[in-house]
Write a structure and sequence with these properties.
This protein has 384 residues and is α+β, with helices and mostly antiparallel strands. The chain is 55% helix and 12% strand. The chain contains eight helices and seven strands. Strands 2-4-5-7-6 form a five-stranded mixed sheet, covered by helices on one side.
Length: 384
Amino acid sequence: MDRQPGLSVRLKLTLSYAGFLMLAGCLLLAAVWVFLLRGTPVSYVLPDLSNLPRVFERGNFGPAVFGPAAAAVLAFLLVFGLLGGWILAGRMLAPLIRITDATRMATNGSLSHRIRLPGRKDEFRELADAFDTMLAQLEAHIAEQQRHAAEQQRFAANASHELRTPLAITQTLLDVARNDPNPDTGELVDRLHAVNTRAIDLTEALLLLSRAGQRSFAREHVDLSLLAEEATETLLPLAEKHGVTIETSGDITPTTGSHALLLQLTTNLVHNAIVHNLPEQGTVRVRTSVHPEGVMLTVENTGEKLTQELVSTLVEPFQRGTERIRTDHAGIGLGLAVVTSITQAHDGTLTLTPRPAGGLCVTVQLPAAPPHIGSARPSHQPAD
């Protein structure tokens, strides 16, 4: 907003202090005039100022002397009020000047500066503390935005690379088939089908990530234990093919969220636990439990020993864990990234812990929801 130039606050306070002091002096002199000098004779001589206690005695200090003396007193009060008011106003406004300087620095892009105004609590210090808190939150928000932008840029680059791979493979297969005088059409179709399936899975995973990140889904009552049963039943043929035994157990774990997204989360965890397991006689344990802080889904699998450094990178997009067992069902590297996004969209937490004996333990904690009436059901039985 454009404003006309005006007096500074310090000058206004100085004039206010001086004016108040002048008013007080005038009232004091008026009181002296009314109560001490009114009604005294007009003929006075100049009093002897060598004896100050006798100056104000009746009959020694009359109107002829009172006028000049009052003017001298008022002039002194004016000078004293202006000088003292200027100093006092400067001391009172010093915190405001520091706040103003910090505001200018923040306007110029320096969000790391803090006022940190010392002293006991008052209005200025409350304002400074609130401004420091706002700067800290703003700095953290901008840092988060920059980090998110960097992650998005890296994710877009990785996604472009991953999407380009099946297209390049398809192009190569078609070129080879075109140049081959006797192409094996059946083998070509099978390979193209596999490559196309990979591209479709990758695209669906990217769309799922975007949907979960935007939280554009309706929330409903969901029981994680039922989702665990559904996921294990769906993936049971894959587990049998890999020689992996799935065990499910736990309690009714009610929460709120998207049934489809939470089922995808559970399916991804169980799928990863199956394909990243021991070559034979592996085990996957799926448990649901209720705790005071929320409901939990735990998926634990056997496998090779993993380092904490490797485990911390598994939630990154397109990280497949190069030290883990790789199979034809190793996926596209978005399984745990999708799990992370869905968990965050449901205000939950995801924890990955390497097992001392080998393998991985993944825990998803979500806010609990009151169970529906009549939702009791028989306890889980381990899946064969």
